[in-house]
Design brief:
Length: 78
């Protein structure tokens, strides 16, 4: 059996749900499509026939290289 406090908690989240969805939708609409590419120091594919999976794998390799570089720099500072 739920306590009164638990019921209040559930009700608060139920009422907040629609507003949180509005915030989420607004943030998704305002995303810059190329922000991820700039983060990975990449560019959109010039070849529209290129597989999305190939591009994704290339981006993930760049991201992993950035992570490893940051880890190495952190280790060298210690």
């Amino acid at each position: 059996m739920a306590t009164p406090e638990q019921k209040l908690w559930v009700e608060a989240w139920r009422r907040a749900g629609p507003r949180l969805q509005q915030v989420r939708d607004a943030e998704l609409k305002s995303l810059d499509e190329n922000a991820g590419l700039r983060f990975l120091n990449s560019q959109p594919s010039a070849d529209p026939r290129q597989s999305g999976m190939v591009a994704f794998q290339a981006w993930m390799m760049r991201w992993k290289a950035l992570q490893l570089q940051q880890e190495l720099q952190a280790a060298l500072r210690q």
